[in-house]
## 1
Amino acid sequence: MRVGVTKEREPGERRVALVPDSVAKLAAAGFSIEVETGAGLASSLPDAAYAEAGATLVDDALTADAVVKVRKPSTDEIGRMREGAVLIAFLQPLTDREGIDALAARGVVGFAMESIPRISRAQTMDALSSQANVAGYKAVLLAADTLPRFFPMLMTAAGTIAPAKVLVVGAGVAGLQAIATARRLGAVVSGFDVRPAVREQVESLGASFLDLGVHGEETEGGYATELSEEQQRQQQEALEARLPDFDVVITTALVPGRPAPRLIPASAVTAMRPGSVIVDLAAEAGGNCELTSPGEEVVRENVTIVGYTDLPSRMAFHASQLYSRNVHALLSHLAPEGTLVLDFEDEITAGACVTRKEGTS
Ligand code: NAD
């Protein structure tokens, strides 16, 4: 089976779907890997490393039996794929109906990385988690770099410096990594989430749980459900009262398939101390803060609000390495002997598949 690795064409995307390490493993397992020239360069992975791992360097990898990507393909890329080909990427099935329809019309069998069920058996394929981990880490580094204060407590001849106070709102995968990273840098950290089960996880990382008196529901899959309007108002008010205590606020609150919950209204930003920093990891889904400008860093009311939507891509080497292991695991699941065997009775295959060519069983 021919697997094609494309160069990512979305502006600013530095990641690549397979790194040479995974290429070598897949080649040994019987796959034939074609990598577009320069595909790994932005992740610090030269063509020579791919060739050494056993890949064939090509100008166009879109004609392969299975195409692996990070971002969803453009209309032009979809048009160049073969009918019946398999595609693995972040396909945004919950928010990009048009893209999914275009793949279906082309007869592409699409597997969305974000639709892989979050069950133990599929943990090695869980790209939402692997990339959220990178984003959580990077968010804290951006905050530390932007904040005009130290994170750790310092005792110097010139006096004692108090540690920074960091609040992480939304303690899922990204939030927990942000909490752990901010703790490692010496900040005093608090965490909050609407899922009550999270308190213990926040505390086990040495942070305190900020009780805002708002408790949401958890779905069977472990996700938060959307709060009622009344609960949202309560949460905004409670947060607004507490935000002036913090130097840094990192927000990661998301509800799958819905716009990001609006947690920090403009009035709450005004109430924060000058020089404070908000890093809004939910920017791509509209933002948790009313003043976030997705894709940008802005200063509003003397508060810096970082709304970058490409944090994993800003740490492309390791983000690619982790994503590549996820893709490798999914490919090995779909084609255990190097040949495609699509079993739609299987929970992972059926869950991840978002478009199916008629006749595939
Ligand atoms: P996510 O990215 O969808 O959301 C991030 C966090 O925002 C979640 O913790 C959610 O509870 C929180 N949130 C939503 N609305 C909020 C609000 N109004 N205020 C504050 N917080 C709010 O979630 P995620 O990080 O992808 O993971 C969510 C869950 O899935 C976690 O329980 C995680 O442990 C679980 N998970 C399970 C597996 C597995 O393989 N079993 C793998 C990964 C994650």
## 2
Amino acid sequence: MAQQEDVFKKIVSHCKEYGFVFPSSDIYDGLGAVYDYGQNGVELKNNIKQYWWQSMVLLHENIVGIDAAIFMHPTTWKASGHVDAFNDPLIDNRDSKKRYRADVLIEDQLAKYDDKIQKEIDKAAKRFGDAFDEAQFRATNARVQEYQQKRDALHERFSKALNANDLEELRQIILDEEIVCPISGTRNWTEVRQFNLMFKTEVGSTADGASTIYLRPETAQGIFVNYLNVQKTGRMKLPFGIAQIGKAFRNEIVARQFIFRMREFEQMEMQFFVKPGTELEWFSKWKQTRMAWHQALGFGAENYRFHDHDKLAHYANAATDIEFHMPFGFKEVEGIHSRTNFDLSSHAKYSGKKIEYFDPETNESYTPFVIETSIGVDRMFLSVMCHSYCEEQLPNGETRVVLRLPAALAPVKLAVFPLTKKDGLPEKAQEIIKDLRFHFNCKYEEKDQIGKRYRRMDAIGCPYCVTVDLQTLEDNTVTLRDRDTMEQRRVNIADLRGIIEDQVSITSLLRKIDN
Ligand code: GAP
């Protein structure tokens, strides 16, 4: 565990050192849970967004995009339920004066039981070697059984308390489980209170009677309030989807784990409108489609899992998360929700507008049901970074840090180096870039020895490097070096585009998921 924490710390500092992610307003010592993306981060982030957008809007004839404003009519948030119910249960420790999410404290306690069970299993696996049967060990080992029973009982009690919104019971669980504050080490807890996560601001001058508006806590509502506009102007027939990428804001109290939980973040959401009664079938289809999107990146199927929700929102009839194996455990990256007709019906009620679909096949009007896929760009970014960061031992005893990014997501696709700064080599290298920069992101580097330049490119995940030398001037060939294998081969300049373009294009990823 400690080792994993070290790896995570290294990833965070790598992000800063190589221009991926900086603390916001860094010269003022940063702002809690807010981050800026640097010169390489923004490219990687844009590539993630492009991969998502194109998988939705290019590959599906019945999905279109929009870009709604961040500010929305304040009634939107009344109708969506956010004003009344977008709360976190908070608890304070009186000694450290630190504030925590009560549900997160309990989830951490559940994870502790899981860790204890895993430790017993790992120990036994080591002891018994090939003869070890995990299922049998789980079913028979007294200590594992005891931990499992405690975990299951806690889980059941926790789910019940959450579903009933029972704040007193949440506090009681924390006391009964003897959960201590990680800072003070004491159990001197306050009551649990609800805290609304929306940021408020005012529109108009106060003299005119300003009104309170909110920074949107999710992009989805911008889609719901535009359902009629898009359906009518696009003459869309059910089933159809509306996709959007944009900023969302939440006043997260417990901001942890770098860009995993931020106060300003970006979402990629798609609302898929379907005929009532078909929603669970579509829910299952979208689960598979979204998992395939993740797995096409090649990070290994074992690093993903579905986590079905214990607590369903009052309007949902199914919900699951896609979790990714981060250095701090399996964590939610994307949510897939069957939201029934709750949002559209509620907006119809609050706005007084009829929001329905006339079905030409059955000659009836109804409110469509909705399947939502909602993924955080920043969490996706973090999962890509965590999986790609690699410290590799080389045969000569050196260590190299390499970001094994999927080539299609890499910020820079090709680096071109002149071997030396003389004999016309820089000019030849620039000539190559001038031609290839129309097709993918290229970078010119002439400082330091070639070896150092390779290392710098490895550290930002650049899949290909080209070196121009004296032979290039004679026969128009260059050395092409592969990031992962470090193999070098001599190729014609005229062949570079053909060799690289297909490997680094978003299309190469899209082909894997198009069926
Ligand atoms: N419209 C549904 C919705 O917003 P959510 O589960 O609250 O659902 C969806 O959020 C996704 O947005 C999450 O799976 C996560 O990737 C991302 N997300 C949510 N809160 C976040 C935060 N504070 N910081 C970064 N990403 C966040």
